[in-house]
Each structure stands twice: as structure tokens, then as C-alpha cells.
Write a structure and sequence with these properties.
Blueprint (H helix, E strand, L loop, with lengths): L15 E3 L9 E7 L9 H15 L8 E4 L3 H13 L3 E6 L4 H9 L3 E5 L4 H15 L13 H17 L5 E5 L4 H13 L4 E6 L19 H5 L2 H4 L2 E4 L2 H10 L9 H16 L3 E7 L16 H8 L6
Parallel strand pairs: 2-9, 3-4, 4-5, 6-7, 6-9, 7-8
Antiparallel strand pairs: 1-2
Bound molecules: pyridoxal-5'-phosphate.
The site of pyridoxal-5'-phosphate has 17 residues, from helix 2 and helix 6.
């Protein structure tokens, strides 16, 4: 048995599980990387820890300094966990329309929540955090959309883990938020094998499908631009709220309880599998389903859940 000295040592090294039972093509395997197994419950634990460690190393973050960040949930929760363990006070700007569990988790790990208007989504939360950070230069503002440690966490963690566990990967599929996952892990995989395809999942413009971002709506994260994201991505696929919820439900057929953006990513992985003869698709499930239970995503009428999905930010 391995003994870990800190919960933070449990971040990363997540399992890859075969969900080919849901593949529409008999000769295409689909493997899902379960990021919900991280101690804070999502892929963003990796990014939170990497940003904090990098800032500590550079001297941008000093003991006891206040941290401020905007998040529609997962990055905030990851930071709340890391900051609690390391002793940094944390303020999270959070849109009002996120699921109640997100708010509760942030509070559980001691973050102070600053509300931003739900109608403005994650972009509104980001703008408010930027303004507050500018007004309070003594706070440290990681700014995940522009922080090089975000894609780096995936270049050094997620990507190598996929390559180690599945060198046969032919397609890499993930949702597009800050783009850190796709840029970091996608670049690592392409450097190992340039034929690997990197496919991004986006919501339709104007829709808040579990909050994945559509880059045509105006804001393209600096980490995407600075890393030549448009050249790295081979395809972008649009997945709507209903499809995301349908696939999130279907995942339980193979025993997986994952978040709504994982349903969106799985819908994209299945489309990808349907378009190729044979191959191995690796798809990222960014978080588990636990903190979406209050939304009724699995249990309520699908039309109602789809309608709600357009108003609630699910990621
Ligand atoms: C649940 C969920 N899915 C997908 C994403 C997108 O990941 P990335 O920001 O690396 O593009 C996020 C990011 O916030 C997320 O929280």
C-alpha cells in the first residue's frame, strides 16, 4: 500500500477506463480518462496545484497572501482545496447560476464567494475578477485563461499519463473551456505521434451547455492563442445541451457517473468513432456526476433538464 503525505499528492494519475460498450463502431475503442477521481473531484485540481506551485516558485505568491480567481466551479474548487492545505485565503468570483453543490464545496474548503451575474456566465465572472484584482494589487490573481501553468499541467501530467496507458491512441477528444486540457495534453500526444488527431467539443454559440465555451462568442483565451490552438486542433464539434444530457445518462449504462461536460465529450467521442474505420479514441471526463445530482440530470424529465441546462452553468 502506498502512503501519501498529503491529499495534494493524490492529484493526477487518474484511471483510463474502457467505455467501448457505447461505441457505435465495433472496431473503434473508446477509453475515458476519469478526472473526477482527483481529490477535489475534477481535472482542475491539476491546474490549481500547478498554478500555485509555479507562483510560489517565482515568488509571485507569498505565504498568507490572498488569492482571487473567477470560476464557474471546478477551478475554484481545486484552488479551494489547494489553498486550504497551503494556508492561502481565497476569494472566488462565481456566477449565481451554478449548481448548489459547487457553492457548498467552495464554502466547505473555506473560500469566500463573490457573486457575479448569472446572465453574464463565466465571461462575466472573469471580467469582475480582473477588475477586483486590478483594484487590489496585493492579491494574487492566477487567471487560468492566461496562465501558462494551466496547459503545462496537462503537458506534464494528463498527456504523458495517456501516452503511458495507451500508446495506441489515434484520437484525443476533450471539451473546450480555457483550452488548457486540449492544448497541453494534445500537444504532448502530437509530439509523440504526429498522426494523433485532436478534436475539441464546443457548445452551440449562445448556449451554456455545461459551460463549455464557444470561442466564436468573442473571448478566445490567451493560452489558446499563445499556443497556436487553431493549428493544434484538427476538428471542433458542436454538441448541444440535450445531447450532452442524453450521453451523460447513457454513461451510467457502463457504470460511469460523470458530469454534464463529460456527456458532451462522450457525444463527441461517439461521433468521432462513427466517422472512422478503426482506432482508439481517448476522451476526457472532466469531473464526476456527484455535484450535479441536485439538477435532476439523471432523474427528471429530459425536456425539463435540457431547458434548465440552458440556464445553469454546469461546469
Ligand atoms: C467540467 C469541465 N469540463 C470541461 C472543462 C474544460 O477544460 P479546459 O478549461 O481545460 O478547456 C472544464 C474547465 O473548466 C470543466 O470544469
Amino acid at each position: 500500500m502506498t502512503l501519501y503525505t498529503s491529499v495534494l499528492d493524490l492529484i493526477g494519475d487518474t484511471p483510463l477506463v474502457d467505455v467501448s460498450g457505447l461505441s457505435p463502431a465495433p472496431r473503434v475503442r473508446i477509453l475515458a480518462k476519469l478526472e473526477g477521481q482527483n481529490p477535489g473531484g475534477s481535472v482542475k485540481d491539476r491546474v490549481a496545484l500547478a498554478m500555485v506551485q509555479e507562483a510560489e516558485k517565482e515568488g509571485a505568491l507569498r505565504p498568507g497572501q490572498t488569492v482571487i480567481e473567477s470560476s464557474s466551479g471546478n477551478t475554484g474548487i481545486g484552488l479551494a482545496l489547494v489553498c486550504k492545505v497551503k494556508g492561502y485565503p481565497l476569494k472566488i468570483v462565481l456566477p449565481t447560476n451554478v449548481s448548489i453543490e459547487r457553492r457548498q464545496l467552495l464554502e466547505t474548503w473555506g473560500a469566500e464567494i463573490l457573486d457575479s451575474p448569472g446572465t453574464e456566465g463565466s465571461n462575466g465572472a472573469m471580467r469582475l475578477a480582473q477588475r477586483l484584482a486590478a483594484e487590489n494589487p496585493e492579491w494574487w490573481f492566477p487567471f487560468q485563461y492566461g496562465n501558462a501553468a494551466n496547459p503545462k499541467a496537462h503537458y506534464e501530467g494528463t498527456g504523458p499519463e495517456i501516452w503511458r496507458d495507451c500508446p495506441d491512441v489515434t484520437h484525443f477528444v476533450a471539451g473546450l473551456g480555457t483550452s488548457g486540457t486540449l492544448i497541453g495534453a494534445g500537444r504532448f500526444l502530437k509530439e509523440r505521434n504526429s498522426t494523433i488527431q485532436v478534436w475539441a467539443i464546443e457548445p452551440p454559440p449562445g448556449e451554456m451547455v455545461d459551460g463549455l465555451k464557444n470561442f466564436d462568442e468573442g473571448f478566445v483565451p490567451p493560452v489558446f492563442i499563445e499556443n497556436n490552438g487553431y493549428e493544434l486542433l484538427d476538428r471542433k464539434m458542436i454538441v448541444g445541451p440535450r445531447e450532452s444530457v442524453e450521453w451523460t445518462r447513457r454513461l451510467t449504462d457502463v457504470g460511469v457517473l460523470a458530469g454534464i461536460s463529460s456527456g458532451a465529450a462522450m457525444a463527441g467521442a461517439a461521433k468521432c468513432a462513427g466517422q472512422i474505420e478503426e482506432g482508439v479514441v481517448v476522451v476526457i471526463f472532466a469531473d464526476g456526476g456527484w455535484k450535479y445530482l441536485s439538477t435532476g440530470a439523471w432523474t427528471d424529465d429530459i425536456d425539463q433538464v435540457t431547458e434548465r441546462a440552458k440556464r445553469i452553468i454546469y461546469f
